[in-house]
Amino acid sequence: MCQFIMGLGTFKTAWQRQVQHFGHEHGSKYTCLIFDNRGMGESDKPLSRYSTTEMAKDTLELLNYLGWTALRQLNIIGVSMGGMISQELALIIPERIGSLTFVSTAARLVNTIGYWENLRNRINMHSTTNTTSQQFIPKSPDDQLDDVKGRLFSHSWLDAADEYGEFPTNGDRFAAMELKKRQNTEGFTRKGFICQAIAAGWHHKSPEQLKEIADKVGRQRIQVLHGTVDQMITVPHGETLARELGGDGDVTKIIVQGRGHVLHMEEQQKYEQWLENIMDKVEDLR
After folding, report:
1. Which of 254, 265, 102, 66 has the alpha carbon at shortest distance from 178?
2. For residue 176, how many C-alpha atoms fall within 13 Å in the half-sphere facing its CB?
3. Average pLDDT, whole number, for the chain?
4. Whether this model's pTM surpasses 0.85
5. What is the tens place of the pLDDT at every residue in 35-68?
6. Which ranges constitute the DSSP H helices of 72-111?
7. Which residue pairs, CB below 8 angstroms and at least 24 apart, start in 138-145?
8. How far apart are CA 232 and CA 263, in angstroms?
9. What is the pLDDT of residues 9-33, one digit of tens each?
């Protein structure tokens, strides 16, 4: 059972390539679960204080409803804020986790510009173009998209030819995807984004809590993936996460040279192979 948990301000459909690979091309071996976190897409968007703990409980309710409750049944893949939610989930149901993959994420955010400026930058990056948000961020849509692309992806990937041949470059394809998302004014709201951003910004797991995760899930079942040019959550966050989980021992750490925040797009084939590798590995541990 593959459970994909998405990051900040993004719809579940961003997992489309992985669902195609695991759920369709290899559907006899894998079952996939994707969903929108609270605040995004087709999920509810309550105006309240979100936390990664509460969002993990949302996820747990869904898993229980589906009957995915067996021991070591879940292969959890969490990217960015989704990786933070995965940490919380691992503290709640460690015995149900078969493998745990943390992608472009952190146990706690550390930055040099200050939390509120960092949060403001992220909100600005995802602002819509109505009058209210233009007062908040006086940037053109093209400038906003350039900010988004530069923070999420490596320049080399953005400038490369679109692998599907429908757009001039990968960057053009992503821009079209982002514009389509923003045009969905019911699924993507400024309120929902801010609530999610607060949850991600306040996420904090101590070294002791990470050790508890590693002890109870099992270090051989955990891997950490991070790109060296990630501008959203920088690579030292991934290094710290792996180290505090026990990355010098049995935890798998993969640092991807020259890649950014969205590894499941920038390195799709390798990414899927890394997931297959750990899922095959834990089958032998059952």
Report:
1. 265
2. 9
3. 90
4. yes
5. 999 999 999 999 999 999 999 999 999 999 999 9
6. 81-92
7. 141/179, 145/175, 145/178, 145/179
8. 12
9. 999 999 999 999 999 999 999 999 9
